[in-house]
Design goal:
about 270 residues, alpha+beta, Arc Repressor Mutant, subunit A, Restriction Endonuclease, about 20% strand
């Protein structure tokens, strides 16, 4: 019986596996854009397949938002072991597979765009906030973990820090669910604002109506933007609250963000 040769993990492999844990899922296009930008796609696919064969990642087919079949990747046994070795004593939640693939893939693209903005000093995903003990024990993050926010980010505006919840909404929900969610955000004074990225105008308008109905007099926390406007932005991302107040985030002149070269941001998966 021929034994498999031991694979030698590179720094890029380790960063990729850590990133995959933090976001729970990636597709081939995102992996190539984020970690193999300077490589031919064929070489990138070869490395991805090798990591899969050696048990670091696994994959299965899914249908993307355009109705096209694609392949999603998740951590496998050895990839999980790698995360465990680096943070065993602080690791309290072990969630390795996305239950909402298209939703979580959209958040990868949104998150990378927001993370690159000049005013954003910190960006943490939901899986990071709920997986590691230091985030569960630090009052700075407790509200976001309790709310199960899709992400949190810290924004510096003129030397003042604001802690902001990030939510991505792709589908219409009943008014009561959104009202309960917004009410919980308003009752948590550690969270300064909630930025909702909405897939449609209908979702955006409904959230704004609920916010105005209940909290116009006491102070608005909700800011919204359409997902297409984030993806298409080249210089400024503008979140707007129902009263017309705007929070501007400046994108860098040259889009970058990985140690392996600059990249262009494409469309939603």
């Amino acid at each position: 019986m021929i034994k498999k040769k031991r694979i030698e993990l590179t720094e890029r492999d380790q960063k990729f596996l850590s990133f995959l844990h933090n976001h729970k899922v990636l597709n081939t296009r995102f992996i190539c854009q984020l970690f193999f930008n300077n490589c031919h796609r064929k070489n990138a696919t070869k490395r991805i397949n090798k990591l899969r064969r050696y048990g670091y990642i696994r994959s299965h087919l899914y249908t993307n938002n355009k109705g096209v079949e694609d392949r999603a990747y998740f951590l496998d046994r050895k990839g999980i072991d790698l995360v465990r070795q680096s943070s065993e004593e602080n690791w309290i939640r072990r969630e390795f597979e996305s239950g909402k693939i298209n939703h979580d893939l959209a958040l990868v693209l949104i998150g990378e765009k927001l993370r690159s903005c000049e005013q954003v000093t910190e960006y943490q995903t939901e899986n990071v906030l709920r997986s590691f003990k230091p985030y569960q024990e630090n009052p700075r993050y407790l509200g976001f973990s309790r709310m199960r926010s899709d992400a949190m980010m810290a924004i510096n505006h003129s030397g003042v820090e604001f802690l902001v919840a990030v939510e991505y909404e792709a589908h219409v929900k009943n008014d009561q669910r959104w009202e309960e969610k917004l009410r919980s955000y308003h009752s948590d004074f550690s969270i300064n604002a909630v930025f909702y990225i909405c897939e449609t105008e209908r979702i955006k308008n409904k959230l704004e109506q609920i916010e105005l109905k209940f909290w116009q007099k006491s102070g608005l926390k909700l800011y919204t933007i359409l997902s297409k406007d984030i993806i298409s932005s080249k210089d400024i991302i503008q979140f707007k609250n129902p009263d017309g107040k705007i929070s501007k985030l400046n994108l860098p002149q040259m889009m970058g963000g990985t140690p392996y070269g600059s990249r262009e941001y494409g469309e939603m998966p």
